[in-house]
Amino acid sequence: MSKELAREILQYVKLRDRPSRLELRIWGGTPMNRIMNITAPVEQGQLVYRLGHYQERRTHWGQSYANEVQCELKFSPEHLQGVIALIDGANYGVDDGRIQVVSVEQSIVLAQFRLPVGDDQRDTRLDIIKGALTTLMGE
Fold first, then answer.
1. Where does the source fall among the domains of life (predicted)?
2. Domain ranges, residue 86
3. Cα→Cα distances 92→21, 28, 35, 115, Å
4. Distance CA 21, CA 103 (A)
5. Does residue 1 sit within a domain?
6. Residue 7 placed within a domain
């Protein structure tokens, strides 16, 4: 009886699998290139962070662009600090880093944050990154 009740409780609190409704797009550089994108789908009843890192490419005219995901990573929410560190590290030395919160379904930019530059602005930058990641929890 207690095993059945425990199973029932676990089934009740288990999250339903769903794609992420929002995506963070991390931009930086001159010209502005997408550095990474982050989503937070629920997979197998667990919330996960999925990161796609873009590799900068150069055309034969010298222009750069980033349109191919070169590396995909998956993190559990317990490792949020790792996600924050990767975003901060990807923007290291970038003069004009930005984070956009985008509706996946409608491709609408809902919010945009400019990341401050410099070691003296690190705490502010990390707070902005953490706040942006929190928006991915929206359903």
1. Eukaryota
2. 16-137
3. 28, 10, 11, 10
4. 6
5. no
6. no
**Residue 6: inside a domain:** no
pLDDT greater at residue 119 or residue 66: 119
Average pLDDT over the chain, rounded to whole? 82
HEC readout, 41-68: CEECCEECEEEEEECCEECCCCCEECCC
What does the alpha-carbon distance between residue 127 and residue 56 come to, in Å, rounded to a whole number?
A: 27
Quick check: 98 and 34 in contact, CB under 8 A? no
pLDDT digit string (tens) for 44-86?
A: 888 899 998 876 665 556 555 556 667 788 888 889 899 999 8
Angle between helix 80-90 and helix 122-134 axes, rounded to 10 deg: 120
d(CA 85, CA 57): 24
Instruction: Answer yes or no: are the C-beta atoms of 35 and 53 closer than 8 Å.
Output: yes
- Structural domains in the chain (count): 1
Please check whether residue 50 lies inside any domain of the structure: yes
